[in-house]
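Rotation project, supervised by the postdoc (A.L.). Task for the rotation student: set up a whole-complex structure prediction and record inputs and outputs verbatim in this book. Inputs entered:
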Amino acid sequence: MLILGIETSCDETAAAVVRSGREILSDVVASQIAVHSPYGGVVPELASRKHVEAILPVIREALDRAGCCAGDLDAVAVTQGPGLVGALLVGLSAAKGLAYALDKPLLAVNHLEGHMEAAFLDKERPEEPFICLVVSGGHTSLYLVTPDGSSRCVGSTRDDAAGEAYDKVAKLLGLGYPGGVIIDRLARRGNPAAFDFPRSRLEKGSLDFSFSGIKTAVAYFVKRYGPPVPEGKGETPYRLEDLAASFQEAVVDVLVEKTLEAAERYRVRHVATAGGVAANSRLRERLEEECAYRRLQLHVPSIRHCTDNAVMIAAAAYRLWLREGFTPDPLDLDAVSRM
Ligand code: KG4
Ligand code: ZN
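Outputs recorded:
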């Protein structure tokens, strides 16, 4: 079962050919970071235009690297949502065109189900039930995946996603975009206990998150002590590494705490994480320690497959096929920004 996956929900144009949900024959990602960097965040209109330019070369490269031609494919899988609607439409239109021209089934995939699939690309999927923390630039939610294969959201952010908080704090500090990986790198040389930022725990028993408070706390910190001074232009009155590490520790504390609480409440033995922020070194380290201590089995994607990619879309489509049988989606399918 050879599936071409296509992903254009945000700022990566991606295509991949995956055999039977597992064997990655190609994995192509064209990043738009350089385009959005000057704005400190994704500009939706620019994202759509760049997807239009990149989509056909990226698909062609995915087929070439896989050593196959379009006619060898058994199906075309594509992200239907959630995401930026103009960006989604580019991938969806390309996928529909291909499916129609090849007379092959079109398979629509939920981007978040794709992210979750990434945790099991190179190892056996555990028996359900399990808890998955999906944590990215657009989403921060806890899912309970049940034996019938469906996922129920048991907690979600009420304001910013964790990745969004990373990106906004990095912008505030003039560090560049996307902020997560920059803060992660700085934090490795910092003291996480240097500054005490708030951990938003909401009401007792809630598995929801809130990250807008910590972003505001960093804004107040910068207002009080001043923004980082560029190199050669004086001295910053605090260690930027300490600020990064303290901010990160507050975010990771809450993510880990709620994930473990969910695992305990739903009595699962397996915990997974996925999405761009799952690439964070401190989050991975803390989850490993805490899960080992509680004898929970932890499943994390490779760093490459944490951020947006098309392998996860092809793999999720294959699972959907195993679970629900092969029902092609109609060619008048629309993109859905919120799913
Ligand atoms: O999954 P993704 O590529 O796109 C969405 O679906 O949102 O996630 C991108 C997010 C960005 O906010 C980025 O800053 C964050 O993931 N991110 C990280 C790291 N790498 C990427 N956040 C923290 N630490 C990282 N190492
Ligand atoms: Zn994503």
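Student's summary: The longest strand covers residues 23-31.
Supervisor addendum: The radius of gyration is 20 Å.
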